[in-house]
Design brief:
- 2 copies of one chain form a homodimer.
- Helix content of chain A is 25%, strand content 30%.
- Chain A has 253 residues and is of the alpha+beta class.
- Chain A has 2 domains: 19-176, Nucleoside Triphosphate Pyrophosphohydrolase; 182-248, Orthogonal Bundle (Arc Repressor Mutant, subunit A).
- In chain A, strands 1, 2, 3, 4, 5, 6, 7, 8 and 9 form a 9-stranded mixed beta sheet that branches. In chain A, strands 10-11 form a two-stranded antiparallel ribbon.
- The radius of gyration of chain A is 21 Å and the shape is globular.
- The first copy, chain A, starts with 6 loop residues before the first helix and ends in a 5-residue tail after the last strand.
- The mean pLDDT of chain A is 89.
- Chain A binds chain B through residues 1, 3, 5, 8-9, 12-13, 16, 18, 21-26, 51-52, 54, 63-72, 74, 92, 94-101, 103-106, 108, 110, 161, and chain B through 1, 3, 5, 8-9, 12-13, 16, 18, 21-26, 51-52, 54, 63-72, 74, 92, 94-101, 103-106, 108, 110, 161.
- Chain A binds a DNA duplex (27 and 27 nucleotides) through residues 194-196, 211-214, 216-218, 221, 237-244.
Chain lengths: 253, 253
DNA sequence: CCAAAAGTGTTCATAATACACCCATGC
DNA sequence: GCATGGGTGTATTATGAACACTTTTGG
């Protein structure tokens, strides 16, 4: 930002002692959604290696490096440190700031949603984390459960208010999927995908089966006719009739 | 938040020195929308009494009182201090955190949208502000203009990145108006309003004329039939045919 | 009577949903 | 051939926009 200031203001800024004002810590927390091998909605969780909530599972994220990065950059950096992913699709979700959400001190959390295909996730827990895992999201009478082949975690066992953040993220994702192009970010390969694969992603997020003919119709109307997606000459064979492949035209969504 | 911790953790928390970590300042900034006397989309701006950007116009808002309030409470408090309004409709917009958006130091801004009918706005500039005003939002080749009977302000003359925040707020408001009940918050009296008055609010926000018969149809379908709004026995006379009055059933929206 | 604003009804295009049916492949 | 998933077409209903028309008031 270009900011021209007077001599008077320069003097003010020089003697401005930022520490006069009490300040909160600021972190980013990232809700990383993916689809597991059976196309079920899943989330990345990190086992904390430090207090508070040591040994508890939590969202990936960490403190803002003040003066060195924006909060968007912080989210990207933390995501890279903990998953190896660069240039992921990230969108800001909400900012949480109750004074009691962290036992240490006031910690403002700016939360983000990331949508990343599973094969791109290379879990590499950073210094703050001992362990990382991808967990299917399930539900029972007490709320959400996060489970994989080794572990099942109750939502009440998550660190901080992260269960709440996840719940809000799921709601937002479900609402966005109808009018944003989010689903494309979960494709295995945006340069070669089938309508069925895209439909499966929508079904997983909306948690209900969709009608293939109708899905195809809106896909062709909304994406192919508008030029956002191009039909490839190639087809792919598995069982049944060979399947047409499509690719995104604009690169990333 | 109930947080039970071990003796080991207690020790950690006691020796935890929050100031080890560099921290940003956190503010809330509030985009207060209203309709002026001629039903034009307007916004509340404050003339800053202090550096930085002294004498420049800016959004109302201020620093978070760390440990004493949540960010939602901070937004409500600032709004009350600068407009006298309590319990206004506030919804979180976006959080801005570029390191260079404030010349002093890194300042994270959590922005909010407020929708307040003009007659409820009692402008009382706080200690940080010399002057407050309601400005109609106009546009020309260089972007937004904010003008009232005394002054016209170019968007480039606003403090900080507030022009950008306002632009994002307007976009969000326009998108929300179609599926959220925001418009009701701008009614002069939620217990006695006409379909025309509500339509005018929608027209102002969407900045285009709407068809009254069609507007009525969706209003009756979406609000009256569902019970959110009740038709009153009363009518009101002005020019032409007397107008039916409606009231919100659930109190505030 | 006329202007003005409220309120009603009709038409048309588009979109969401449900579902019947055909097509091309592997086995 | 036949199971399997891909792909096409049709009927139904809901929604949104455009617009003609009627109603009730004040002047």
């Amino acid at each position: 930002m270009r900011y021209q200031c007077s001599e008077e203001e320069k003097a003010f800024l020089q003697q401005y002692n930022a520490s006069l004002y009490e300040r909160p810590s600021v972190t980013t927390d990232i809700v990383v959604f993916t689809l597991d091998d059976l196309d079920r909605l899943s989330i990345l969780l990190i086992k904390r290696g430090q207090f508070p909530y040591k040994e508890k599972w939590a969202l990936p994220g960490g403190f803002l490096h003040v003066g060195k990065e924006s909060i968007d950059e912080c989210a990207n950096r933390e995501l890279k440190e903990e998953t190896g992913i660069e240039n992921a699709f990230l969108s800001q979700l909400y900012t949480f700031g109750s004074p009691d959400r962290d036992p240490r001190t006031t910690v403002i959390s700016v939360s983000y949603i990331a949508l990343i295909p599973k094969h791109r996730l290379q879990l590499c827990a950073g210094d703050d984390a001992k362990e990382a895992g991808i967990f299917q999201i399930k539900y029972d009478v007490d709320g959400m459960l996060f489970s994989n082949s080794q572990t099942t975690i109750r939502e009440s066992d998550l660190a901080f208010d992260h269960a709440n953040i996840i719940r809000i993220a799921i709601t937002r994702l479900r609402n966005r999927i109808d009018y944003e192009d989010d689903a494309f970010n979960l494709l295995k390969d945006q340069n070669e995908f089938t309508i069925s694969e895209l439909k499966k992603i929508h079904e997983t997020i909306k948690n209900k089966p969709l009608d293939l003919p109708n899905f195809r119709k809106s896909f062709l109307r909304d994406y192919v006719k508008s030029g956002k997606v191009k039909e490839l000459k190639k087809t792919i064979n598995s069982k049944g009739k060979p399947t047409k492949l499509y690719k995104l035209t604009g690169g990333d969504v």
